[in-house]
Amino acid sequence: MKAPVQSISVSRVLTNTKETSPDLVAVEEPLEIRIGYGEEKNREQITIAVTMRTPGNDFELAVGFLFTEGILNSLLDLESLKYCSDTGKQEEKENVVRAELKPHLNMDVSRFQRNFYMSSSCGVCGKASIESVSTHCSKISDQSIVSPLIIHKLQEELRRDQIVFDHTGGLHASALFDFDGNKKIIREDVGRHNALDKVIGAMLLKKENAMNKSILWVSGRASFELVQKAAMAGIPLMVAVGAPSSLAISLAQEVNMTLLGFARNEKFNIYSGEQRIQI
Fold this sequence. Notes:
The chain is an alpha/beta fold. The chain folds into two domains: 29-131, no CATH class; 148-276, Cytidine Deaminase, domain 2 (3-Layer(aba) Sandwich), CATH 3.40.140.10. 22% of the residues lie in helices and 31% in strands. The chain has helices at residues 58-68, 148-159, 163-168, 192-205, 224-232, 246-255, and strands at residues 5-14, 17-26, 29-37, 44-53, 78-83, 96-101, 117-118, 172-177, 183-189, 215-218, 237-240, 258-264, 267-272. Helix 1 crosses helix 4, helix 4 (192-205) packs parallel to helix 5 and helix 5 packs parallel to helix 6 (246-255).
């Protein structure tokens, strides 16, 4: 298993002096996600995406990505997951994951054509066309009510478990809480979208169907893609430390998701779904 952090030597400048000391940085490496599909006697393989990520929880990342892209409808569509051992290059070891889909799935490969590279800061930019961004999201029906006091304490709860961030200061995080503010899961990654895919993938692999009764907390801003991924998972309430984009707000309103931004220092803004916040 590859480490999520790497030790380096850094020169620290204080006023007009310099000293050399060790430091830890977050690792960023490519992960290629492939799928195997087709009848048992005529299997084919295609690369769906290459994303820059922090190593760790790679299978969760692959499953979450395939689910939020609409390639997997549920875990029942998945036959197996494994690292590819036949790449022939040492640097690709544990950097290529192959998801074998069930033979009965009919795959229209053309709808998954994309520019195969996604940076850690952008997942949507890997899409091959504007049309492919509009993954179908269902309306969220859950009408649970949450107190602002629960929202205020989420970041404090989360910071206790941001272990890699504490060492590097260079990672995003996504986490799920229940409506009482109890943490279910947290994942870190250099990419916002990767951290969320890891959370969703982990819940699917655990066969836990509680995402539709959860609060999602994300570090940084609330982008359209993060709202889309949350909507695909049926998450009714999303809390972001930073600002949402106009398209993220529009999608949240369209799918009946509660979207909160600037959630810090016991304050937040409501951009959509105010009916779930008990004032």
